[in-house]
Design goal:
Strand order of the largest sheet: 1-2
Largest sheet: 2 strands, antiparallel
Number of domains: 1
Shape: globular
Number of helices: 2
Helix content: 55-70%
Distance between the termini: 38 Å
Length: 67
């Protein structure tokens, strides 16, 4: 169940990001990886202290408090 939920969530996120690229005149399909990174950074920034976040290198860690 959990693996399927994660798969569906990731597919939904990809659909949203792809649609953003398609409808934005300043973005090209080749910039989709850049959009992925921007979304990931936003999600990391919004995560609360103690939540698990995925770093750019793919590893997971617990978010610390900002200094």
């Amino acid at each position: 169940f959990v693996e399927n939920l994660i798969k569906e969530e990731n597919e939904d996120r990809l659909a949203i990001m792809s649609r953003i690229v398609e409808t934005n005149e300043t973005l090209t399909p080749s910039e989709l990886p850049r959009v992925h990174k921007m979304f990931a950074a936003l999600n990391r920034d919004k995560a609360l202290k103690g939540e698990r976040i995925q770093l750019d290198n793919g590893t997971w860690t617990q978010k610390d408090a900002k200094p």
